[in-house]
Amino acid sequence: MRFDEFYGQSAVVRRLRAQLQDGAIVHAFLFAGPRGCGKKTLAQLCAQAWLCTGPDKPCGVCGPCLRVQAGSHPDYIRVTTSRTEIGVDDARELIEKLAMRPYEGARRSVLITSPINKNAQNALLKTLEEPPEGTAFFITADQTAQLLPTVLSRMQIVHLGPLEPQLCQQALLARGVAPDRAPLLTALSGGVLGRALELEHDEAYFALRETAFALLEPLAPALLADRLAQVKGYNRQQAAQLLDCICEALADLMRIKTGGEPLALDRIQWLQNASAAFDERALCALQDGALEAQARLGRYSSVQSAMEAFLFILVKETKGWQS
Ligand SMILES: [Zn+2]
Fold first, then answer.
1. Which of 65, 120, 132, 196 has its CA 20 to 30 A from that of 289?
2. pTM, 2 dp
3. Mind listing the pLDDT tens digit for each residue in 212-266?
4. Which residues surround ligand 1, an ion (CB under 5 A)?
5. Which of 4, 6, 2 is nearest to 171 (CA)?
């Protein structure tokens, strides 16, 4: 991949490109942004550009680029762990490795895309402040708050946000997404390209979303048992996702009420019918109920008791709606 093929964040990418082209760079970068925003891809591109010997870095065709792409460059160091976070042992192993000279040329890239625990961050502090000559760090995090202020102060922070809707749609089309799906995936993902691509194949998500819309339809008390039977077989994760989908639908209803654009572009008619049936107070009560059910799941109540509490509010608030 080349910088030209990276969608969006053009000001950020232009600046990084110039820095890496000149070779006069800061020696530690943090790429921060929501999951799916492309921070790992950009960190990899920069780590490769740092080693590239071609004219337009990363060129993709010079010796170092080919070895990075084949996973065989000895000075392209990816720090990984078998646990969920990089620990102090992994950090010490890296520091030992960096005490030796680079194998090829004068440069070395260190890429870290797993979370780093506090002890490991403290262990890396001195190395980040004064890395061995020619060594540059490329680290990613969902939020800058995951890193200690002392670590952050030693890095150049690169913030990545969502893409403009039009750009996100273009990127989806370029990746083979059907033209009629691109606007919906863009809206549902909030312009986070990786999330949009993940959603495209997430049939379980779309099934839960259908259930969420169905649940919000008029619910007679006699049907409560049926609906409860339907959702009580869900595991904790499914129940949490269902409640997320319910919250998304409620937020769309509130957007319609306040003259905004809903995200569920495929359910505009449904949302318009439903928005006439719920007043703002009912929407707030349902939103509170869904959040409370999420909190119950978080406190390890049973899925059934968490969903029951929500369905009782639902019966009360939807009884007036004639579809
Ligand atoms: Zn190259």
1. 196
2. 0.78
3. 998 888 666 667 677 778 787 888 899 999 999 999 999 999 999 999 989 999 9
4. 52, 54, 59, 62, 65
5. 6
As assigned by CATH, the class of the 202-318 domain is mainly alpha
Domain coordinates in residue numbering, the chain? 3-159, 202-318
Distance from the alpha carbon of residue 158 to the mean position of ligand 1, in angstroms? 23
Max Cα–Cα distance, the chain, nearest Å: 75
271: left (phi over 0), alpha (psi -120 to 50) or beta: alpha
- Which CATH code fits 3-159? 3.40.50.300
Distance 55 CA to ligand 1 centre (A): 8
Token code pair at residue 132: 């061995």
Query: For residue 234, what are its two tokens?
Result: 């869900």
Distance 53 CA to ligand 1 centre (A): 5
